[in-house]
Amino acid sequence: MPRKITFIGLLLAISLPAQAQVLESDSLALVALYDSTDGANWTNTWDLNTPVDTWYGVTVSGGRVTELCLFQPAQRVHPGRTGEPGQSNSSLS
Which domain range does residue 29 map to? Predict the structure, then answer.
């Protein structure tokens, strides 16, 4: 009987998704940022009751927050301008 219980426990441990753990100092820094910038009213808010690696714009690697991207640059539209962004357009005055 103990073998069956051990085997079932091992199967459960393998099948459950692993949540990335982060250093407490990283987590506290992100919460301080969230609180000090009115995070509850962000377009993409964080559920502070979920793991840090599920928060919008937060990348975790090796137990550390390695990237934070909280915005997407707005695409600027210029009426009357043709061509791709970044291309030179000699007809502009």
Answer: 18-68
